[in-house]
Amino acid sequence: MSLLNSGWRTLSYHQKRLVRDLLKYQGVRNMSKMREEAYIDGQWVSAKSGKTFPVLNPANGKVIANVPDMNETDAELAVDAAHKAFQTWRNTTAKERSVLLRKWFNLMEENQESLSRLLTAEAGKPLAESRGELMYGSSFLEWFAEEAKRINGEVVCSPARSREMIFIRQPAGVASLITPWNFPNAMITRKAGAALAAGCTCIIKPAEDTPLSAIAMVDLAEQAGIPPGVVNVVTSSRGNTPAIGRVLSTHNKISVLSFTGSTPVGRLLYENCARGIKRVGLELGGNAPFIVFNAADLKTTLEAFMVAKFRNAGQTCISGSRFLIQSGVYDEFVGMIKDAMETRLVVGDGMDNGVNFGPLINQSQLNKVDGLVKASIAAGAECLLGGKPHELGGLFYEPTILTNCAETTPCFEEEIFGPVVGIRKFETEEEALQIANSCDVGLAGYIFTQDVSQAWRVARQLETGMIGINEGLISAAEAAFGGVKQSGIGREGSRHGIEEYSEIKYLCFGGIN
Ligand code: SIN
């Protein structure tokens, strides 16, 4: 463990706490055995090349661990292990899988605080948010432990007296699960919970910035008794990620690929999967319209705005992105959000008490956000608040408001994935819908109005897969999460989240006298 190598006495309070938490989640293992390893075929392993890469704390740039920098050789070993394990895991009963998922869920609950601190250390999100993500993440394991027992088939009416027609559901095979850095815990459980419930085995490829949560969670999966090879974790630096992605999307032993991340990477993986006709689940970028009508209750809308925009400092696929505000409430609502952003957002290290707004994940994300803000201002947007890197330095960015945005303003055209509120005033419902639908992605959207007819009318026409109506927090294990247009394919969570991982097999019983 690099923290330990650097000398216990030189560590800050938070670093010492992190080390203690890591030890705690690992059931107080010997310090020298702290996990900085990947997990293949039930073994904790290094990269075959012996290489490692550092994991940084985005709040201060310090190295918190060094983990295996694996490449395609390691990925192939993981695929072989998952494929071998599938031959027995596929034959377990739903009840057996359910019991193991429930044990994994219980361990996640027991280790919630340690896992939350680990999450804040590697992803930078405020501790209260990490605790929220832990509850959210664990809830997928609980949900899919229950759903495992309800993956039923169908008996349908045959057109012939001599036949009976039955559909059974079977696990699809080995699943590649490629997960993002913005929800290092919940995006793994949302995929792995569904895959395991269906009887698939999997290889998890966590994001380069946040592999530690994946390692910790899979450690708990092992402790829960999930057999070797059923869950595997392959870690790698940014440099090796494309090669691993290629193996995970083209290998003939892979049947399903589930990816959460950007639309360009999703497109590439989809193209790779097309060659092998693999099943895909893609949860890609959004650019969520957040529409405030004259008939909105502005107090409710403000609370929804704060959570929909500032969860994870705006680095969420379903963050409000394009704010459309009707002229009758425009001045009042813009004043309210400016005031709330100035007085309620406390920027800093997510481990510190009271902080509710952390750093961005890495330098390239900060450069992207800053570049889009500058380009938007150059294109005619007006900066009402913020607009530059925060005086704290590092990866902190100022909560920013840009008004006077048009469809072609860079922060409207491209998902900003940061703490930037781009605003446009509109006059009519038709105009709001036209602007909201004028993009090629459609993950989430938000509508604020107390007029029920208007809520229904707009919800029917808004081209997104999910809509918050007078609500800014729509995520839950029970929800069917996913998008339309170039925001992806398939749904995660809910009972539909299992569909990607199971196949229908049609049995026709003939010759009945
Ligand atoms: C995401 O940003 O990819 C997921 C957000 C969520 O599940 O709420």
UniProtKB/TrEMBL annotation:
GO cellular component: mitochondrion
Pathway: Amino-acid degradation; 4-aminobutanoate degradation
UniProt keywords, alphabetically: Oxidoreductase
CDD domains (UniProt xref): ALDH_F5_SSADH_GabD
Active site (catalytic residues): E283
InterPro entries: Ald_DH/histidinol_DH, Ald_DH_C, Ald_DH_CS_GLU, Ald_DH_N, Aldehyde_DH_dom, Aldehyde_DH_Superfamily
Pfam families xref list: Aldedh (PF00171)
Gene3D superfamilies noted in UniProt: Aldehyde Dehydrogenase, Chain A, domain 1 (3.40.605.10), Aldehyde Dehydrogenase, Chain A, domain 2 (3.40.309.10)
Keyword Coiled coil included in the entry's annotation: no
Protein name: Aldehyde dehydrogenase domain-containing protein
Organism of provenance: Meganyctiphanes norvegica (Northern krill)
